[in-house]
Design the sequence.
């Protein structure tokens, strides 16, 4: 069983602590949080062992789960990796692409595994449909959230849209050709609403919209490909699959048939994939344990996290042009 420690015990850090404490693949050794008052309270009320420094925690574990503010990811990851310990990094992987690339280089140099916490890859609605998504040519995403001061220190692209960027990059097997985007600051110093259009070399187009000042929460992505439409609701963990096939010569009374201008007839039919309930955060942490134990490839690699960050910053650069 891998010994693991958590850096950062804020809102998300406490969730990671609880889940790791339940995990059968890790032994939770403890945590470190620079806010001593918060750390004392968590240790006292929840019973987790509190370390007095990052170095003390790193020395006691095999794996470090970094759930600190993004600005500190690089420094924390560097100390962890140089100690020869595996590292799980919450998204985004780091504050800059240059830092992310150095994290990759360090992980290779010290022969350690790394995974980035793009949790939507583990969403059960996406898992149930991802094998049906092949060569999508148009993708539309809406990720809307009610206002929450937590996270407003970075643009909405790094806070919310980067989830959808990672999902899209995982299914579109083509390089990005062009990006157009706009962003608006409403209540924060950085954009709170953003829209981006990503064009890929294979002709696929993705249109992404994110807002953190919405009146309702929404996390939906729609994939359009030849003969199929796939809708994934990441919030409610539901999916819808609509497909087309050649119409039978003698359609039934209730068959849905479309005919184009050339006279070609297609039958529309629905598939309802089973969505198996899971805990996506626990799954991402435990599949990382599997990758370490089996010397395999993590589901969301450091390279994946870096590419998502690279595209996010290209979108942000569009705001300034």
Sequence:
């Amino acid at each position: 069983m891998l010994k693991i420690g958590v850096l950062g015990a804020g809102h998300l850090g406490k969730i990671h602590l609880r889940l790791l404490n339940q995990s059968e693949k890790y032994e939770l050794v403890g945590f470190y949080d620079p806010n001593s008052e918060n750390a004392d309270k968590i240790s006292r009320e929840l019973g987790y062992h509190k370390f007095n420094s990052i170095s003390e925690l790193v020395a006691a574990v095999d794996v470090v789960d970094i759930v600190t503010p993004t600005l500190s990811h690089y420094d924390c990851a560097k100390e962890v990796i140089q100690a020869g310990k595996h590292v799980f990094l919450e998204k985004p992987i780091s504050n800059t692409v240059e830092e992310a690339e150095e994290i990759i280089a360090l992980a290779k140099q010290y022969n350690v595994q790394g995974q980035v916490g793009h949790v939507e890859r583990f969403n059960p609605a996406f898992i149930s449909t991802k094998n049906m998504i092949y060569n999508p040519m148009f993708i539309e995403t809406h990720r809307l959230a009610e206002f929450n001061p937590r996270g407003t220190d970075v643009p909405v692209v790094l806070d919310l849209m980067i989830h959808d960027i990672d999902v899209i990059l995982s299914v579109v097997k083509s390089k990005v050709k062009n990006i157009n985007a706009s962003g608006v600051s409403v209540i924060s110093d950085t954009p709170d609403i953003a829209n981006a259009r990503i064009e890929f070399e294979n002709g696929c187009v993705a249109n992404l919209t994110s807002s953190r000042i919405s009146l309702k929460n929404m996390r939906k992505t729609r994939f359009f490909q030849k003969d199929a439409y796939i809708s994934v609701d990441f919030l409610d963990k539901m999916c819808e699959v609509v497909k087309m096939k050649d119409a039978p010569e003698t359609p039934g009374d209730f068959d849905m048939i479309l005919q184009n201008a050339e006279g070609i007839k297609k039958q529309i039919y629905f598939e309802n994939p089973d969505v198996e309930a899971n805990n996506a955060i626990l799954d991402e942490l435990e599949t990382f344990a599997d990758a370490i134990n089996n010397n395999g490839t993590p589901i969301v690699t450091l390279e994946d996290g870096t590419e998502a960050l690279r595209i996010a910053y290209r979108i942000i650069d569009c705001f300034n042009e």
